[in-house]
Amino acid sequence: xxxxxxxxxxxxxxxxxxxxxxxxxxxxxxxxxxxxxxxxxxxxxxxxxxxxxxxxxxxxxxxxxxxxxxxxxxxxxxxxxxxxxxxxxxxxxxxxxxxxxxxxxxxxxxxxxxxxxxxxxxxxxxxxxxxxxxxxxxxxxxxxxxxxxxxxxxxxxxxxxxxxxxxxxxxxxxxxxxxxxxxxxxxxxxxxxxxxxxxxxxxxxxxxxxxxxxxxxxxxxxxxxxxxxxxxxxxxxxxxxxxxxxxxxxxxxxxxxxxxxxxxxxxxxxxxxxxxxxxxxxxxxxxxxxxxxxxxxxxxxxxxxxxxxxxxxxxxxxxxxxxxxxxxxxxxxxxxxxxxxxxxxxxxxxxxxxxxxxxxxxxxxxxxxxxxxxxxxxxxxxxxxxxxxxxxxxxxxxxxxxxxxxxxxxxxxxxxxxxxxxxxxxxxxxxxxxxxxxxxxxxxxxxxxxxxxxxxxxxxxxxxxxxxxxxxxxxxxxxxxxxxxxxxxxxxxxxxxxxxxxxxxx
Length: 506
Ligand SMILES: Nc1ncnc2c1ncn2[C@@H]1O[C@H](COP(=O)(O)OP(=O)(O)O)[C@@H](O)[C@H]1O
Ligand SMILES: [Mg+2]
Fold this sequence. Notes:
By secondary structure, the protein is α/β, with parallel strands linked by helices. The chain has helices at 38-53, 81-91, 121-130, 143-146, 160-167, 200-212, 226-231, 233-236, 242-254, 279-283, 293-296, 312-316, 319-324, 369-375, 379-382, 396-400, 408-425, 439-445, 450-463, 467-483, 491-499; strands at 3-11, 14-28, 31-34, 62-69, 103-105, 108-109, 115-116, 135-139, 153-157, 216-219, 270-271, 284-285, 290-291, 301-304, 326-331, 334-339, 343-348, 387-390.
């Protein structure tokens, strides 16, 4: 009878059950592993051999065959060392097989038999709980991450020896205390609003963007503070709910980008990929598809600095996820969908040299290069950006003043109130924010009285607003009204929304 130990792989963002079967085979002293990529097998075999040699018992002289099933699931990474080693000890009769029946075992081993950090434990633990397993054994360093999943016993394993002792009942391993997520302390925001001097109108635009989940483009000369302002956005967005935080953490866990000692990501992510990023790096991809930057920015901010420098093709692929809030990657093996509900913040200089329109420095660009530079951005993509705002250089007096502005915390409270209003109003819609309203919802919730009608009619003519831009203005007005808790859109709200429209609308 082969021995069987349960373990876990990650496909896309989900854990998948893997069965590790160990049986005797012909010959002496070989371990033959099926169902793992070749290089991984070789290394894994050596680690298991060394780890078992470090136990008080000696390595089996008979040959073994280890099968990792199902075969078509990609099992990369060293997560199977520990379950394979346990399987070997079971077939040798050193551990009773019944002890591992309701257990998932995951973890990489060092040569001396101690466990090492293994990525992806959060989705693995979630799978274990969902399939009704009682216990998950994980490397001790990763126990806090797995313990975020309630109703699952997490055993922190320091070494193969320790696990063996536990399974034979010689020495007990205490389960890791489950972490009550609401008890985790609130973290400081990284870039606080109050440290940004001046730029009141840009801060206001950011507040509107956060309140209604609107995308935003900043244009201004180098050094004006665009990067700083972008960094302050996550801190004024509503705090993530526990489910949102778990969603985000899962993505980072799989890509092994969780900072150590941070089991749960509570800050909204801020991602700023460089403009040389590849298509796959941005939206996700690879033979075994992995999430890209837009998924790492899920529920947070995707900041594209030097916006026109991103290739046209790269920017075009953003259009779909901007609408769908997710990205689907198709491969021969099937397609995978990754979440990508991010707020887009883009920044650009007004011209190639950066100083067009600047009161101090002289722009050195020729008349023809400026429109060509601005044309690099495609109309359809720009049309998906609700807020366009100029970021002029701040004058020295303001920069050097000690006066602190409003802290992020205060702004966030207003944003959270405005979001609540939207959630109530859009309770039937899957998205629940003004920025994501569909045309029917815009008609229903953004009705204008006669004064507003007159205003928008003349503005539409003067600014040459497209139909899409018209909708944008309505959605923005709705958010601006929500920020002050007003039921109806009034001309003041509309006028502010119109300020956020680009001047040279086609
Ligand atoms: N309004 C401001 N208040 C405080 N510091 C500022 C402000 N604007 C710019 N800075 C500082 O000036 C430097 C350049 O700003 P940065 O955000 O990189 O500008 P940009 O991205 O527009 O080129 C940063 O160190 C930033 O902290
Ligand atoms: Mg910058």
